[in-house]
Design a protein that fits this description.
five-stranded mixed β-sheet, 2 domains, alpha/beta, Dna Topoisomerase Vi A Subunit, Chain: A, domain 2, 7 strands, 209 residues, Helicase, Ruva Protein, domain 3, two-stranded antiparallel ribbon
């Protein structure tokens, strides 16, 4: 039974918080009541930070990572290895891999994985823009750093076939220190770092028969 509130303002705030991932109405109510106990300027800063984030955040025109500028700091860094591109599902995976300190190249954020069951096809994620980066001729290795799930493996294979016309580009995959079924963001940094260092050719990961 859904809880009723004496205040429409309170009910609206709880309903908005409850839309966040993993937040039920009880937790939403607790968060809203916490904010109500804070000084007005503190709550105002909280609200303004969310509005500013939503209005001003953008996505890097090169890799699609979150950025405050047209090109993200990673892509703009001249010290990064521009010949190596690590393909990930989302922004959280960029953060996870960066925390390992083992990848010194660039990234490409797909923004999702191919999932026919969910109606997500290759055209719905950033695969074509990845192919464009490879066509530019600067990329020498594409590291497929996607989750070891059915959707991740499907996307890996599609990208592998998509980049087949570029035989000079090495396509590698994380070593299977990342367990089957695991998502990148939940893999510990040590295991993830070793998986990057010990990556193997993607063509060696499946039978050619």
């Amino acid at each position: 039974m859904e809880q009723e509130f004496a205040s429409r303002l309170l009910e609206n705030a709880v309903s908005e918080f409850a839309q966040l991932p993993g937040i039920g109405r009880k937790t939403a109510l607790r968060l809203v009541l916490y904010l109500l106990k804070q000084p007005e300027d503190s709550a105002t800063r909280f609200g303004e930070s969310i509005i500013k984030l939503r209005k001003e955040i953008r996505y890097c025109r090169v890799c699609h990572n979150i950025s405050e500028t047209e090109t993200c700091p990673i892509c703009a860094n001249p010290k990064r290895d521009r010949s190596t591109v690590c393909v990930v599902e989302n922004v959280k995976d960029v953060m996870s891999i960066e925390n390992t300190g083992q990848h010194h190249g660039l990234y490409h954020v797909l923004g999702g994985l191919i999932s026919p069951m969910d109606g997500i096809g290759p055209q719905d994620i950033e695969i074509e823009s990845l192919a464009e980066r490879v066509r530019s001729g600067e990329v020498r290795e594409v590291i497929l750093a996607l989750s070891a799930t059915m959707e991740g493996d499907t996307t890996n294979f599609y990208i592998y076939r998509k980049l087949a016309p570029y035989p000079d580009v090495k396509i590698t995959i994380l070593a299977r220190g990342v367990s089957v079924g695991n998502e990148i963001e939940y893999t510990d940094e040590l295991t993830l770092g070793r998986s990057i260092l010990n990556r193997t050719l993607f063509s060696d990961s499946f039978s050619k028969e």
